[in-house]
Design brief:
Elements: H1 21-32, E1 42-46, H2 51-67, E2 70-77, H3 84-97, E3 102-106, H4 114-132, E4 136-138, H5 143-156, H6 160-163, E5 169-171, E6 187-189, H7 197-206, H8 223-238, H9 242-271, E7 283-284, H10 285-289, H11 293-308, H12 314-324, E8 331-336, E9 339-343, E10 347-351
Parallel strand pairs: 1-2, 1-4, 2-3, 4-6
Antiparallel strand pairs: 5-6, 7-10, 8-9, 9-10
């Protein structure tokens, strides 16, 4: 193998072992976006055993010789099913046979809710990544997942920032801690967003990868499964390729939101106060209220998300704006995750019982 980092002109040929058009596609995608999974970093890949995560791990394993990552795997046993422990053991045996290290966490007090499971997974991934000194956590989200997420957020009335869903790269913040994180940041990378679920199925078939099917993925009590089984097929029938185009629209929204963030941050600096009743930076209520409502909405949403990591739904944000208009009295509002927005006639500030907000 060459000792230098690969370039777009130095891609392996299709005759290389463990190589396919899907390998080449991901390899070129990573070369075009070097910040996504930089050369030589520690990578912790989440492995559920489903087709998407199996395809992801196989691609990363085969590309490791070119990108020189320190690749390790993580599996979360939610213990929602009686056979989940057996599946974890089988995954561990498969990983060992591939020469890959697999860490397993088991949920001691499982809660049968999608949001709770997601928070538990990401909390475990953060802890495991720090223990293994991995700078990047990688998940197997595809274009199909992003299309489903955008449709869900659209139905819930999310703000534009919420519609810019499943970014390819973002900081991974613990959902359980509101405090300012003093540790080295961990990146959450989603390198399979250019791929569809059909692509990962073909790759698993070509590489003869084992797949562990999770019955909960077809349980229509979960909203995402209903979108996947009942909504997306209709859109695909009406407009073939709809999911891929919806995912591309989410990517364009990400680019638009990111390009406007610099201007929004500059505007926020003019509204921030040196301190508030809580001793933390707040916003000047009157100056915010003097702006056009659309600008108030964008600035308030950005400030709250930046400070609390909460993306408020549009209806909740509109209610806040209504209560903050000139002439309305001081008050407070619960935002979720124990966060509270408080305001007097001059200032808005945030409160959390366990928060250590930046001064």
């Amino acid at each position: 193998l060459p000792s230098r980092a690969p370039t777009a002109q130095a891609s392996p040929t299709s005759s290389a072992p463990g190589w396919s058009p899907h390998h080449l596609r991901l390899h070129r995608h990573l070369l075009r976006q070097p910040a996504l999974l930089p050369q030589g970093v520690g990578v912790l890949a989440a492995l559920s055993g489903g087709q998407d995560s199996m395809a992801l791990v196989a691609l990363l394993r085969d590309l490791q010789r070119l990108h020189h990552w320190d690749l390790q795997l993580w599996h979360g046993d939610h213990q929602w099913r009686p056979e989940s422990g057996q599946q974890a053991s089988e995954l561990e045996a498969w990983a060992q046979n591939q020469g890959l290290a697999l860490s397993i966490d088991r949920w001691a007090a499982p809660i049968h809710r999608e949001a709770a499971a997601r928070n538990w997974r990401y909390g475990c991934l953060i802890e495991r990544a720090r223990a293994l000194q991995a700078s990047h956590v990688v998940t197997a989200h595809t274009a199909s997942d992003r299309a489903e997420t955008l449709l869900l957020h659209l139905a819930r009335g999310s703000h534009r920032r919420g519609l810019a869903s499943l970014r390819s790269l973002r900081p991974l913040i613990s959902p359980s801690s509101p405090t300012t994180d003093q540790c080295e940041p961990i990146a959450l990378a989603r390198p399979l967003l250019p791929f569809s679920r059909a692509d990962t199925a073909r790759l698993c078939e070509q590489l003869k990868l084992p797949i562990w099917h999770d019955p909960s993925n077809t349980d229509r009590r979960y909203s995402r499964n209903r979108i996947r089984a009942e909504v997306v097929p209709v859109l695909e029938e009406l407009h073939p390729g709809a999911a891929q185009r919806i995912s591309s629209q989410a990517e364009r929204l990400v680019e638009e939101v990111e390009s406007s963030d610099e201007l929004v941050n500059l505007a926020l600096q003019t509204l921030k106060t040196a301190g508030s009743q809580a001793g933390t930076p707040g916003l000047q209520r009157q100056e915010l209220g003097d702006l056009a409502v659309a600008n108030q909405r964008q600035l308030l949403h950005h400030w709250l998300e930046q400070s609390t990591r909460l993306a408020l739904p549009a209806r909740q944000l509109e209610e806040l704006l209504r209560r903050l208009q000139p002439g309305h009295p001081p008050g407070q509002a619960d935002l979720g995750a124990d966060w509270q927005l408080r305001w007097d006639r001059c200032t808005l500030w945030l409160h959390h019982p366990a928060a250590n907000l930046p001064q």
